[in-house]
Design a protein that fits this description.
This protein is mainly beta. Helices cover 0% and strands 53% of the residues. It has no helices and eleven strands. Strands 2, 4, 5, 6, 9, 10 and 11 form a seven-stranded mixed sheet that branches. Strands 1-3-8-7 form a four-stranded antiparallel sheet, with no helix packed on it. The model has no long low-confidence stretch (mean pLDDT 96).
């Protein structure tokens, strides 16, 4: 059973930084493509960033140059370093991995950007 557990969310002022972590189990992590998504009330979940098993990355236009996704295969963990945070980055952030045609999600971690 694939399990994803996010951590690192919280309240931060505009312009601040946070690092989210997602620990994975139940899958061969080094072979997994991983992603971060976010969702606000009343809106669809949207892609924030992805990293493939070989380390290629992809970002939503709204976060390019501010967010960085990375992975540590030795720790089965994917990270999302968020900088220059804006109020519009406020959302629940979810970790994702597709395995055998099925999408797995973590429980989500709240990020609130407010003064």
């Amino acid at each position: 059973q694939v399990q994803l557990v996010e951590s690192g969310g919280g309240l931060v002022q505009p312009g601040g930084s946070l690092r989210l972590s997602c620990a994975a189990s139940g899958t061969i992590f080094r072979l997994a493509n991983m992603g971060w998504y976010r969702q606000t009330p009343g809106k669809q979940r949207e892609l924030v960033a992805q990293i493939t098993r070989v380390g290629s990355t992809n970002y939503a236009d709204s976060v390019k140059g501010r967010f960085a996704i990375s992975r540590d295969n030795a720790k089965n963990t994917v990270y999302l370093q968020m900088s220059s945070l804006k109020p519009e980055d406020t959302a629940v952030y979810y970790c994702n991995t597709p395995v055998a045609g099925k999408n797995y999600w973590g429980q989500g971690t709240q990020v609130t950007v407010s003064s």
